[in-house]
Amino acid sequence: MQFHTLKDALIDELHTRPFPVISLPAQVSSIAVLNPAPVETEIERLTDLANSWGMPAPQKGASCFYQSCDRFNIRWERHNEFSTYTVISRDSAKDKEQGSLALLGSDWLQSVSGEIISANHIELLPLAEAPSGREALRGYFDGERLIGSKIYDGNATVWTSMRSHSDGFTKTLVIDEGINASQAGRAVRNLLEIFTYRSMTLLALPTAKSLLPEVSTLERRLSETSEKLKQLKTMEDEQNLMAELISEATQVEKLIADHSFRFSATEAYFNLTQTRLDMLREEKIPTIRTLKQFHVRRFIPAYNTCVSVVKRKQNLSQRIGRTSELLHSRLQLSLEDQNQRLLASMNNRSKLQLRLQQTVEGLSVVAITYYSMSLIKLMVDPLPLETYLPFGDALVVAVTTPLVFIATLLLVRRIRKKLGDSE
Question: Is the entire prediction scored with pTM above 0.70?
Answer without folding.
Answer: yes
